[in-house]
Each structure stands twice: as structure tokens, then as C-alpha cells.
Amino acid sequence: MSARIGRLSRIAFLLTGEHHAAEDLVQVTLIKVARHWRRVIRGGNPDAYVRRALYHEHVSSWRSRRHREVLAADPPERQAGRNESVDAVRRIVLRDALARLAPGQRAVIVLRYFEDLSEADTADALGCTVGSVKSQTHHALGRLRVVAPELAELIEDAEVPA
Questions:
Q1: What's the whole-number average pLDDT of the chain?
Q2: What is the CA 39 to chain-centroid distance, rounded?
Q3: Cα separation of 15 and 29, whole Å?
Q4: How far apart, in whole angstroms, are the C-alpha atoms of residue 123 and residue 130?
Q5: The predicted structure's pLDDT at residue 129
Q6: Nearby residues of 2 by Cβ (< 8 Å), 6 or more positions away
Q7: For residue 117, what are the contacts with CB-CB under 8 A and spacing of at least 6?
Q8: Phi, psi of 62 (to 5 degrees)
């Protein structure tokens, strides 16, 4: 269970940009999911259900508040065995660049490239059309190219069809 909480927390951090907001997002989502847990289990894929609920809760919160997000100074937890200095610089640049995206664009980027969801699964998770996902992805990658040219290599890799 702690591995699932850790993953949900990292996803929530990428969506919200700050640790406290991410913790709140995970907590609210799990409370809402717990109310319907028997039905969730019967559905057969509780992990996917919880992830989808997390994204929907995030979208609901930014739609209702319409506020500008401010990122925390601390990046998410580190992974062992990696070049930490290069990763740290890339994380900071990426975090700052994600903060400059609209919340919907950020959600699409997180779902498509962090969660590695297909366009159809991303559309399903966000409750929109595949065309909206494609459009938001295109605009988000274009915005990232402008605000963080140092990420050009990552953006080009993201645009290459699989």
C-alpha cells in the first residue's frame, strides 16, 4: 500500500506543484474513493479507478478555484543509481516549466509522459475528447519549448510517434 501512496503522492505533486497541495489532493481523493470501496473492488481495477479519481479531483479543484499555482522549493523524492546533479538541474527546469503551463496542459503532460497513458486513456481520465488531448498536448509542448528551451531534447523525444 505504501508504494501506491508514494506513486499517488508523486503524481499529485506533478499535478499541483507543491507538497502540501499534493498531500491534500491524495487525502481528499482517498476519502472519496473509500466511500465506494466495495464497488471499486468489484470493478476489477482499483488502481486505475483511484488514479482517475485523483485526476478528476485535481481538475475539479482548479476549475473551481482558478488560481495560479506556486511550486514548492523541494523536488519529489530521489531515485537511487542516477546522476543526481544532472537529474536535479533537469527536475528544477522541468518543475519551473510545468508551473508555467495551464492546469489542463499540465495534467495532459503528466498523464501522457509521466503516467505513459495513451491519448484515449488520457481523454478518459480527464473526461474530454481525444482531440482535446491532442490539442492540449501540442499547445503544452509548444509552451514548454518557449519557456524552457533547455528541455528541447526531452520535448523532441516526446513528439516522436511511438
A1: 81
A2: 25
A3: 14
A4: 5
A5: 94
A6: none
A7: 111, 125
A8: -80, -25
Q: Which residues, other chains included, contact 154 with Cβ-Cβ below 8 Å and sequence gap of 6+?
A: 90, 94
Give the chain's radius of gyration (CA, Å): 16
Grid cell, residue 56, equals: 478528476
- Determine the Cα–Cα distance for residues 53 and 49; give it in Å rounded to an integer: 6
Q: How far is CA 21 from CA 43, 46, 95, 109, in A?
A: 29, 23, 15, 19
Overall average pLDDT of the 6-13 stretch: 89
Query: pLDDT tens digits, residue range 34-67?
Result: 998 888 888 888 888 888 888 888 877 766 554 4
Amino acid letter for position 84: E
DSSP per position, 9-76: HHHHHHHHSSHHHHHHHHHHHHHHHHTTHHHHHHHT-HHHHHHHHHHHHHHHHHHHH-------SSPP
The Cα 39–Cα 49 span in angstroms is: 10
pLDDT digits (tens, 9 = 90+) for 65-78: 544 455 566 666 65
Distance CA 29, CA 49 (A): 11
Cβ-contact 122, 104 below 8 angstroms:
no
Q: Which of 95, 107, 96 is nearest to 140 (CA)?
A: 107
**In angstroms, rounded to a whole number, what is the distance separating the alpha carbons of residues 75 and 92?**
7
CA distances from 132 to 35, 113, 128, 129 (A): 31, 16, 6, 5
